[in-house]
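Subject: Protein record for review, amino acid sequence with backbone structure tokens
Why sent: The fold of this protein is of interest and is recorded here as tokens.
Enclosed: The protein record, placed directly beneath this head.
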Amino acid sequence: MASSEYKHSILWRGEDPTKIKFKPAYDGTKKVARYRKGQIPEWADETKKPEKKGREKREEEADLKQAAKRRRQAAAAAVLEAEGERVRASDGASSRLARLQRSAEKAETGTERLLRHRRVEAAVILEADKDEKEEAEAKKEVLKEELDVDLKPTVAEVNVDQMGSDDEDLDIRQVRRERIREQALMKRKIEEDVLKAEIEEEQEEIPEESEYDSESEDDARRGPLMKPVFVSKVNRETVREKELLEKEEEDARRKKEVRALERKAESKVLLIDKIQEEAEAARSAEDQDDRSDVELMDDDDEKNEAEEYELWKIRELKRIKRDKEERLERQREIEFVLKRRQMTDEERAKDDARSWMRRTQRGQT
């Protein structure tokens, strides 16, 4: 039988996947046990676990009872000591209080009597899963017992009530009230200290807030501040204006220097022209005098010394003037040369053009 459904056939390719039942990889019904370092496994020593827990519970309850017993004994001793001091201070102590003191000195104290009459049976743990619940209940019971014993009257108070002494009952109650009052005062003092510390912290924070408020008020008086915006150096108007002003001042200074030099050159030319005219006039006058003297006879008899002195004086003044003009001319030439050296090529070309225009105008005139 050759078929794909036959298991022993050569055409068999395994079980049909459509007929296989889905089985998830994770089975939630099985509990996964996680163990930590130092932890005892649950399967180990399961039979001894309830007994061990029960023993621990009983030991813990016994410790709690012993602590409560010690506290009650200390409270009873304090009350008895206070009562003994009060009895010794008072001269008219009653026989009932003496009997109370004798009964307190016996081996069996009142706290032991109360514990003997109020026997607390420890609970027996039957199931391991109820350990925590029973432990909490046991603790509550022990605390309740302690509160009942503390709230109940002490040994002295019980004996006094049995004896029917109203005065002694009032004194003991007064002692208890004083103790409660002291505790309340101590608690109130602690609360006042805490409150004082909080107030000091708040007062330390107040100056900082006031400084912040003053700063904010100052800012409000100054007015709203504009948001700073970055402007590149090329687009800054102030820099441009400053550069333009500097450039204008430099141009004005250069123009002023050029005008001063032009005026100097013009005055120099005018002076030279005037000197030349005077020199020509003097030469022409001398020529005329020479020609007239040649025609006349040489006769020095009629010469006047005063006139000769005046003529010498004039010649000397002209010489001084000529020397001065020469010095000024040399100085102007030096200044002109220095100025030309400091000029650029464009400025020299402009200066040459201006001087050429002046010469042409002078030639036309």
In short: Residues 257 and 344 are 15 Å apart (CA to CA). Confidence is low (pLDDT under 50) at residues 118-129, 149-164. The chain is about 70% helix and 0% strand. The radius of gyration is 68 Å.
